[in-house]
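Issue: ligand-bound run for iron/sulfur cluster - logging full I/O for the record.

Environment: standard queue, default settings, no custom constraints.

Inputs:
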Amino acid sequence: MRVMKKTQVALLRHTDYKSDRLRNILEKCFFYLGGLESIIKPRSKVFVKINHLSPPSTPDKAIVTHPAFTREVLSLLKQLDVEITVGDDIQSKGKDGFLVSGYRQVCEELDVRLVNLREGGFREMDCAGKVLKKTYISPLLLDTDFILNLPKLKTHSFTVFTGAVKNMFGVIPHGLRHRYHREFIRSDVFSQMLVDIFACVPPHLTVMDGIIAMEGEGPGQGNPKNVGAVIASKDAVAVDAVASRIAGFNPLSIYTNQLAHERGLGIGRLEDLEILGANIQDVEDRSFKHSALAVGILRRKIPAFLHAFIQDQLIFIPEIFTKNCTSCLECVDICPVGAAQLEKSSVRIDKSLCIHCMCCHEVCRFQAVKLKQKAVGKLVNGLSALYGKITSLLT
Ligand code: SF4
Ligand code: SF4
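Outputs:
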């Protein structure tokens, strides 16, 4: 009887971003996967998709893929004599966002091209997805030979978890990302859209920075969490399955894992993976804090006819906490409908215009945008967090 080969994922423990030791760990990861040159052909073109997020932040906040992590991956990649471009679509309001995050310095040091994707424009493409028929993608990804995906392990206030699959959301224009936030307000539909984009530009290799992850209200408002994991695979969905398990989830309870698995875009079920290196039980962290705002897990248990009511209760109503507000106007710039406004030198939100996309909350670095919810919504969130914890303990 022919035995099917399982999808391989390298999982290694490592607790800091110090150069030599980290490079050894990455070399070991690639060794487990058959060698870097078996995945990425020497002298080819490689696009490296980092997780940068806007507004730019320093690496200690654990919002971006740590530039020291990327530096070591790039150093190994350079040994293949490949043409490298590192990039993401970032919004940094006249500043050099890559300088703030440390990416400018790393790429200059290694003499590697670093690009804000918006500079090269975007190309319309058919994607024949489940919710998207067409979208716009950076040509840098469409015209490259290989895509190397470097996500950060984080929990997420809307999609519950964010990793390798969601990292590819950054390859479409900023404005379109906001439009999709407005159009796909249910997290299962939004996740299906994420999988559509992922399917347009599937990475050839994913190496996740789970050394210091983010817990709580990711992608930008959570707290750094020492996890000490480097996870790599040719299968990005498998990386997310392992990472979400480490963060205390049942991997198939995460919509992006489940949907990508069902669509044959990768393996989201742990039983179907061969994990090489560390034992996943030794890396798993049951104290990992999940988002208190996300309700994706519990929503599966709510009958369909109640979705509209629950959706209304779950809506987040942003309010400016004026004591913390520095009037930096990042929220005013990013608001897709002009609901966040500057009025007589202070920022306010016009609730009649607000479409509850949470972009102002995501962009504010000063914890000055608070999200309020109706009482039933708060109850559902509490139950969702409890349900998530219980199911992760039972699986
Ligand atoms: S709410 Fe936050 S993002 Fe908006 S102006 Fe104030 S500090 Fe800046
Ligand atoms: S005020 Fe905030 S939540 Fe409302 S539409 Fe603008 S960015 Fe989105």
